[in-house]
Design brief:
- The structure is a single chain.
- This protein has helices spanning 21-34, 40-52, 56-64, 71-85, 90-94, 115-131, 147-155, 171-178, 220-225, 228-231, 240-252, 268-277; strands at 96-99, 102-105, 137-141, 160-165, 184-187, 201-206, 253-262, 281-287, 293-299.
- With 301 residues, the chain is of the alpha/beta class.
- It has two domains: 5-86, Orthogonal Bundle (Helicase, Ruva Protein, domain 3); 100-299, Vaccinia Virus protein VP39 (Rossmann fold).
- The strands form two sheets. Strands 5-4-3-6-7-9-8 form a seven-stranded mixed beta sheet, with helices on both faces. The chain has a two-stranded antiparallel ribbon with strand order 1-2.
- The longest helix is centred in the middle third of the chain and has 17 residues, at 115-131.
- The chain is elongated and about 65 Å long.
- Bound molecules: S-adenosylmethionine.
- S-adenosylmethionine (SAM) binds at residues 111, 113, 117, 142-145, 147-148, 164-167, 170, 189-191, 207-209, 227, 229-230, 241.
């Protein structure tokens, strides 16, 4: 006889328990959807996994078996859902941000890493792979959580990586995520780096602040919780900081080195012009996984 799926393995099923995973999960999805959270199902699952200390596949299994949260776990889960329904970012609730192969420490005061930046890193990694450098030297300007620098340090073989971040609130996260990987962290203005680094880099990657002052983000998670310093690029077009970063990148690169910078989709042409004005050649635009033009690269002559 086939076993009753609700009684196989794990904690005994509590039948109609008020804390059943399936029921709380369903209620959670409805609660977050009502609060217009963009991805209610994914967020509910990640919060449940966070509370239970398990992976998503295991959560599915426990749900299928009809298992329940303990009363303590259910209370914690419901508190987190209530906080998420006020549009506190998921990453601030769990203290974790996922980026490529890494789980990074994030929280209030630091920009939460985004999937589109993963594609920006890929442009840099592809360049390094083509160049077959034995010991590539890379720098991440405007590092925030250190997502880009940490990805380069773990994915570019034998690389030496620098991370540069100005914010006093973010720098603790940069250090926590990067220093264990051997990344050299500089707490300073990325547009004004020591002359000793000039002409020494093979690759400069940056996701600087680039939002114009009149383009305040609609999502409360971004508008109210990402640091202002991480969002707004200053100047009417939001490109004052990207312009300074582009000039710095040109100073840092050795001839033939590559600069890749993230920007908004609507800044595609202005970003290319910025790189041209700074003297870059072989300028190319790159898309993220959804096909949006989200970064531009150029080579130092
Ligand atoms: C859009 S966030 C990007 C963070 C991270 N690189 C990422 O992709 O997730 C921009 C970061 O630049 C930092 N920043 C702003 N102006 C800076 C400057 N002049 N020098 C260094 N960092 C700066 C902000 O504090 C913020 O952490």
């Amino acid at each position: 006889m086939a076993p009753d799926i609700s009684t196989v393995g794990g904690a005994p099923s509590q039948g109609a328990s008020a804390f059943q995973i399936a029921a709380l999960r369903r209620a959670g999805i409805a609660q977050l959807a009502a609060a217009s959270v963009p991805s209610p199902m994914a967020d509910v699952d990640l919060l449940a996994c966070f509370v239970l200390g398990i992976e998503r596949a295991e959560l599915k299994l426990r749900e299928l078996r009809g298992e329940s949260f303990s009363a303590f776990e259910a209370a914690k889960f419901n508190d987190l859902l209530a906080a998420r329904a006020t549009r506190i970012p998921l990453q601030h609730l769990t203290g974790q941000g996922y980026f490529r192969y890494l789980t990074l420490k994030v929280g209030p005061g630091v920009f939460s890493p985004r999937p589109e930046t993963e594609s920006v890193v890929q442009v840099g990694l592809d360049f390094l792979a083509e160049q077959r450098l034995e010991n590539p030297r890379c720098v991440d300007l405007c590092s925030g959580s250190g997502a880009i620098a940490a990805a380069l340090a773990t994915e570019a073989k034998n690389s030496t990586v620098w991370a540069v971040e100005l914010s006093d609130d973010a720098i603790g996260y940069t250090r926590a995520n990067c220093e264990p990987l051997g990344v050299k962290v500089l707490h300073q203005d990325a547009a004004d780096l020591p002359a000793a680094l000039e002409g020494t880099m093979d690759l400069v990657v940056s996701n600087p602040p680039y939002i114009p002052p009149n383009a305040v983000p609609r999502e409360p998670e971004v508008r109210e919780h990402d640091p202002q310093m991480a969002l707004y690029g200053l100047g009417e077009d939001g490109l004052q900081i990207p312009r300074a970063i582009t000039a710095q990148a040109m100073r840092l690169l050795r001839p033939g080195g590559l600069f890749v910078m993230e920007h908004a989709e609507v800044q595609e042409h202005s970003a290319a012009q910025l790189l041209r004005d700074a003297g870059f050649i072989s300028i190319a635009g790159h898309q993220d996984l959804t096909g949006r033009a989200r970064s531009t690269s150029g080579m130092a002559p």
